[in-house]
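Flavin reductase (DIM6/NTAB) family NADH-FMN oxidoreductase RutF (Micromonospora luteifusca), 173 aa
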Amino acid sequence: MTSPTAATTDSEGRLSPDRFRQVAGHFATGVTVLTTGHPGELLGTTVNSFVTVSTDPLLVLVSLVTDGRARTSVGNAGNFVVNILGADQAETARRFARSDRPTGVTAFADLRWRPAPHSGAPILLDGIGYFECRVTEAAAAGDHTLYIAAVRDFDLLSDTEPLLFVRSRLTRC
C-alpha cells in the first residue's frame, strides 16, 4: 500500500477533505428526495447517499448531515420515504438541496404527491419509484448520521432514466 501523495494532503500532512470530495465526486450516484412528516408538517431533502442493504429483510441505508433539519425530522418521526428522481427532475433536486429550502405543505404545493400508506410522508408521483421506510438503527458517523431502515412499502412509478450526480453536477445516463 502506498502512502498519501502531496496532492491528497494539506500543508500539515493531513488528508485533504477538499481533495477527498473531488476524487469521490467522480463516482456517479443516483439522486433521491427523502421526505418525512405528515400532511400538516412536511420536509424534503435531496440525498444521494442512499443504498439498498438487504433483501431479507428488506433494508436500506441513508446518510444525513447531523446538524440538518432532515436528520432531526427523521429522528423524531422514525420514518421516511426515499423518492428516486428521474433525469427530468433536476429542478426538484435543486429545490430540496437548498439550505433555505421550503418546508411544510408549501414545499410540495406544485408537485404531484400522495401520502405514503404507513407514515403519511410524501411520495413524489413524478419520480421513478419510492421506498417507504421505518428507522431500525441510527449511528453517528463523522458529521453525518447513518440510518438503517426497514422497507414498509415500495413501488416503481416510471421506467425513465434516473437523475445522476457526478463531478458536482446533476446529469443523466
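Helices lie at 17-24, 69-77, 90-97. The chain has one domain: 30-166. ok done for today
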